[in-house]
Amino acid sequence: MTSRRPYLIRALYDWVLDNGLTPHLLVAADAPGVDVPRQFVTDDGKITVNVSPGAVRGLSLDNEMIHFSARFSGANYNVVVPPGAVLALYARENGEGMLFGEVETPEEGPAPVATDDGGTEDVSQADNARDDEAKKKRAHLKVVK
User: Fold this and answer.
1) Beta pairing partners, 101
2) Closest by alpha carbon to 103, among 10, 1, 5?
3) Vertex 18: Cα angle to 13 and 24 (nearest 5)
4) Which of 31, 40, 13, 41 is nearest to 81 (CA)?
5) Which is higher by pLDDT, 23 or 124?
6) For residue 84, which of 113, 52, 62 has the smallest C-alpha distance?
7) What is the pLDDT of residues 10-20, one digit of tens each?
């Protein structure tokens, strides 16, 4: 199943703007795939970025990557952030928003598991086989009047 974080980011971004407030992203700058100006990263490895329409150009909130151009101390910088590296999105004026918690790494493909015949299959196939067996063994309830 895909991550819900990119969907929540887009929804919260729209919500903050619809209420006339200024959206900010709190990003884990040390997460894989993050490209932000390092001189603005805090000692704990985080950076807060104003992502309001007046502060950024070319904002794209995609499922795989968030990217935009912004000015930091007068210099243009192309920022790239995977949605899993976003720790929070909130309104500057009142702090309303959502804290996502820890960095979310992209899911890797299913890992192979050993089968009874000595071969391997994907975890999802093994899970499906187990689910099918469980369905066969489940008790069926009857309506009693």
Assistant:
1) none
2) 5
3) 35
4) 31
5) 23
6) 62
7) 999 999 999 99
